[in-house]
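Appendix B, example 12.
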Amino acid sequence: MRVGLLTGGSDCPGLNAVIRAIVRKGVQEHGDTFLGFRDGWRGVLTDDAMELGITEVRGTLPRGGTILGSSRSDPLAGTDGPARVRATLSAHRLDALVVIGGIHTLAAAAALADEHGLPCVGVPKTIDNDISGTDYTVGFDTAVTVATETIDRLHTTAESHKRVLVVEVMGRNSGWIATHAGLAGGANGVLIPEYPFDLDRVCGWVQSRFGASYAPIVVVADNARPADTEVRLGGLSGIGEWLGREIERRTGHEARATVLGHIQRGGTPSPFDRWLATRFGLHAVDAVHAGAWGEMVALHGTDVTRVRLADAVAAVKTVDRERYAENEVFFG
């Protein structure tokens, strides 16, 4: 078969491992040939592509980012988008298109498959881990590892200066990174978008921690907000700085904020992300040869399965109350 590949949306560690696995298995076991579209859906819409073979993917397993580039282009934004996608696939005689992306990229693939009959297979990737239908997405574990290592380092400087240190992590509308990294790093408070927080309660955690002769660490997801205050930050980031100022003003303890930002997206993928990305790539090839159009590979437990793309992107996967309660044991 002749198969197209693209990586869309925000980059994350592990994308190259997916590409590598798809190409290696496709070429070696099936004699497939591959075409990689540059910069996500933009490359499909403008017919900007490169041939992909084993030589092109050699040495990319530990490499962050994506050798294909990425963008937030939407093939459904214009009335002629689906027709342009179909024309590009036809011009290159492609039998399938493997779409590696987050919710928005995969939502476009679902619509193109279900509504326009195009042969799309999805692979879930995002550091936010917010795609329903899969336990984990490519990139999430690396982001959690980076955030946890940061918290570990900040504990010592917090103790040295008896400061409150606020760590702002990404997550958009889901608190998965904050929840996992906060628990793994021993944070004394974790604030996530799913549950608006009580600022007085947070300050109580801070005072309790100092009362036990320890300096506190508070982890906050970039879209978390207080329950009783309208905070206008002009974007996702900024809550960490605001929270640090409020804690210092209310408690009298010096506070500093560390915003991780794109550091969570960059660099070499963790061993788990390499493992997950590689397995997703291998199973994506199986999905292509099975003609599983409109489906996405997913991790359930330790098994890689398939789910309908439309179902996987129908709702954002959020942190449930029971999971969050595990963190609350260690607050304050």
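DSSP finds twelve helices and eleven strands in the chain. Residues 140-161 form the longest helix (22 residues).
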